[in-house]
Design goal:
Layout: E1 5-14, E2 17-23, E3 29-32, H1 39-47, E4 72-80, E5 83-91, E6 98-101, E7 104-106, H2 111-114, E8 117-120, H3 132-146, H4 150-169, H5 179-207, E9 217-223, H6 232-241, H7 243-249, E10 259-265, E11 270-271, H8 277-299, E12 304-307, H9 316-329, E13 333-337, E14 351-358, E15 361-364
Helix pairs in contact: 3-5, 4-5, 4-7, 5-6, 5-8, 8-9
Length: about 375
């Protein structure tokens, strides 16, 4: 199997890093250092190699190093199954991010066809017990990994919905204003729903029969109210019929933006929201690994994994099992932890990187 990995990474004025340069091979990268020294910032920089706003969903302005606020730049060399690519992503004094791929300007969506990146961060640990928006975002990140065009489809749907919601709030009743917007919402909304359903099926198959120490997460896509219409014509008709109710609410109440992801610990038949903290974490790890296995089948190479504080809520046996699965998968996993001992089970199967801080500036040691 081919390998997908970041071989070189350079950060300039990115978050806490004034300048950081590092090189790596295909093995997992274990990053250690005390809290607050900038370990997660390295992962965030790598997450920008995929479409979207990165693992923190931060604005370009928020990523710049303070107090200089000069703008920032991330440069990476990515070895992919189709060859080696140079990626540059930067923002000048808080302006929108720009991308250059192999020396040529490119849209962010082009990154999805180059590099597949999956991540698990501590903020996701409460996924099962908080609001549906976070679960939709989690599902859409997985869906995007299978279908890079999902990002553009989602943007088009959101744009049409915002314009329709503006009409609803302004109490515009003339149907002529709604027709084109509802047609666009119906077309893109059904595409979003079908992409999500396909992604869930891929995850189910990737979990079935897999030799893993992590529990199987049974997943279902549910709607906040009525069932999701099954066709473009049905969704368009539902939007038309629901205008009066939507106008009273001031927003669109039907569509994929009302979907929710429901998870169940399959072996115990217990809803994920009712599981223990450790079980919820294990279910998330299971899904990330399933996503990675399915992508490896599609692409012939495992995606890059970003696992921030991954040892939290995992006992030593499960931690060792996670490392084993990552190595069998052949993924370059960038993992953080406060102590190097957290990665002892990896031994020489990984490369190690210490991040420290001096005078408020993060410093990255050489990868060993």
């Amino acid at each position: 199997m081919s390998r997908l990995f970041v071989s070189d990474l350079v950060l300039s004025h990115f978050r806490s890093h004034r300048v950081a340069r590092l090189s790596a091979d295909t093995r997992p990268v274990a990053i250690h250092g005390r809290n607050g020294v900038g370990k997660t910032n390295l992962l965030e920089a790598i997450s920008l190699l995929s479409p979207g706003r990165g693992l923190r969903r931060a604005s370009a302005e928020d990523m710049t190093r303070r107090p200089e606020a000069l703008g920032w730049k991330v440069q990476a060399v990515v070895a992919a199954p189709d060859g080696v690519h140079e990626v540059e992503i930067w923002s000048e004094t808080g302006a929108a991010r720009q991308v250059r791929l192999d020396g040529k300007p490119a849209p962010q969506t082009a990154l999805g066809r180059l590099c597949r990146v999956l991540w698990l961060i501590p903020a996701m640990d409460r996924l099962w017990i908080e609001g549906a928006e976070g679960r939709r975002r989690f599902l859409d990140r997985m869906t995007l990994s299978f279908a890079p065009s999902h990002a553009e489809t989602s943007i088009a749907y959101e744009k049409a919905m915002r314009e329709r919601n503006r009409l609803l709030k302004d109490m515009v009743r003339d149907p002529a204003w709604y027709g084109a917007l509802e047609a666009r919402m119906a077309e893109t909304g059904i595409a979003i729903h079908e992409n999500r359903v396909t992604a869930l099926e891929r995850l189910r198959r990737a979990q079935d029969g897999a030799a893993t120490a992590f529990p199987v997460a049974a997943l279902d896509l549910v709607q906040a109210e009525a069932d999701m219409p099954c066709s473009v014509d049905e969704l368009r008709a539902a939007l038309t019929d629901n205008r009066s109710r939507d106008m009273a609410a001031g927003r669109s109440l039907i569509g994929p933006h009302r979907s929710d992801l429901r998870g169940t610990y399959a072996e115990k038949d217990v809803a994920a929201r009712d599981c223990s903290t450790g079980e919820q974490k294990a279910l998330l790890v299971s899904l990330i690994l399933a996503n990675a296995r399915a992508l490896a089948e599609d692409l012939g190479a495992a995606p890059i994994l970003l696992l921030d504080e991954v040892a939290a809520h995992l006992d030593p046996d499960r931690r060792a099992a996670l490392y084993d699965e990552i190595c069998v998968l052949g993924a370059q996993a960038w993992m953080t932890g406060t102590e190097p001992q957290l990665f002892d089970a990896l031994g020489d199967r990984a490369q190690y990187l210490e991040v420290t801080e001096r005078d408020g500036i993060s410093e990255v040691g050489a990868v060993a």
